[in-house]
Amino acid sequence: SICIYLTSTKVIVHNVYIPPNLTMADYPTLQIATLLSHHAATILAGDFNSHHPTWRGRRHHSGNSLVAIADALNCTIV
């Protein structure tokens, strides 16, 4: 992770890798939510190995978890 200081704010950038084929129990939902819950502007980038119809993939528990976290924390997935 790095912290970028701008004129009036700071942005925290995290790089994440989530291995493919994790079970639902092993998916790091809490860790992702913790990274996104900081009070500063946050960018979470990386290879999530998550699939969801929102980004034209098949539905999978990892994609469902990622979408649910983003919705709960009012984040945007791009």
From TrEMBL:
Molecular-function annotations in GO: catalytic activity
Gene3D superfamilies: Endonuclease/exonuclease/phosphatase
InterPro entries: Endo/exonu/phosph_ase_sf, Endo/exonuclease/phosphatase
All copies of domain Endonuclease/exonuclease/phosphatase, residue ranges: 12-77
Pfam families: Exo_endo_phos_2
Signal peptide: none
Protein name: Endonuclease/exonuclease/phosphatase domain-containing protein
Organism of origin: Argulus foliaceus
